[in-house]
Q: What sequence folds into this?
């Protein structure tokens, strides 16, 4: 039987989603907990994507398989048990059976990330927002962000040593919104490369302070060279906030 898990996690305590040698990860923590509760030697979990060290997810999906068949009530009971066993940094919202071919990663049609910036020092937000005190031209940043929807190859914003077949992504949303002293960047695409969002944010901030023009931002994309882009923004302010599927083919 294949089951989907809907969860969220605070990434500060983990070295990303994916299992890392000698470092705590969300995936390994979940697998250990499920194996214990289901009394199975190893439960393998497949996530909807990787998040880097220190990055958070307020909405994340993963799937696993087990010989056990759970009723709806048993799924709810398992959610309750998982939340009791898991550390405080991870919460399970839901667990439900899906069709055998439903895949958390490959069936996701889009993912949305949000990056939070505080323009004024705020001790109550510093754990989950990047304090950036320099004056920013948000209009220019949005002009540059709009170019992301007109391009497909994002080699310039990807880590160099990464196991991918190509650097093609289809961005459908990218914009900055200012509210009081908080600046929020939202970006949606069918897929993301490693470090892509943080590299984009770091480069767009350079546009905001006038170090890079809007055309200069396009030139960076055209170069297809990670060295052309600017330093990545810190991880602690980045959240995976939404993962969309054409349909969750729940099995009755």
A:
């Amino acid at each position: 039987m294949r089951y989907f898990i809907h969860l969220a996690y605070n990434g500060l305590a983990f070295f990303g989603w994916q299992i890392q040698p000698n470092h705590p990860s969300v995936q390994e923590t979940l697998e250990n907990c499920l194996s214990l509760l289901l009394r199975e030697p190893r439960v393998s979990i497949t996530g909807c994507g990787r998040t880097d060290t220190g990055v958070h997810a307020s909405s994340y999906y993963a799937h696993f398989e087990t010989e056990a068949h759970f009723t709806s009530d048993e799924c709810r009971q398992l959610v309750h048990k998982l939340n009791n066993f898991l550390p405080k940094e991870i919460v399970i919202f839901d667990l439900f059976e899906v069709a055998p071919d439903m895949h958390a990663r490959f069936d996701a049609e889009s993912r949305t990330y949000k990056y939070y910036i505080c323009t004024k020092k705020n001790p109550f937000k510093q754990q989950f927002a990047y304090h950036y005190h320099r004056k920013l031209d948000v209009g220019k940043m949005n002009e540059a962000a709009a170019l992301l929807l007109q391009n497909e190859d994002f080699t310039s914003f990807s880590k160099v040593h990464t196991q991918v077949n190509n650097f093609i992504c289809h961005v459908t949303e990218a914009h900055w919104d200012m509210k009081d002293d908080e600046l929020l960047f939202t970006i949606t695409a069918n897929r993301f490369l490693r470090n892509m969002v943080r590299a984009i944010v770091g480069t767009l901030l350079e546009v905001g302070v006038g170090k890079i023009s809007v055309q200069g931002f396009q030139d960076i994309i055209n170069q297809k060279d990670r060295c052309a882009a600017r330093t990545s923004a810190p991880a602690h302010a980045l959240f995976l906030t939404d993962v969309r599927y054409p349909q969750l083919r729940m099995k009755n």
In short: The chain has two domains: 2-106, 110-241.
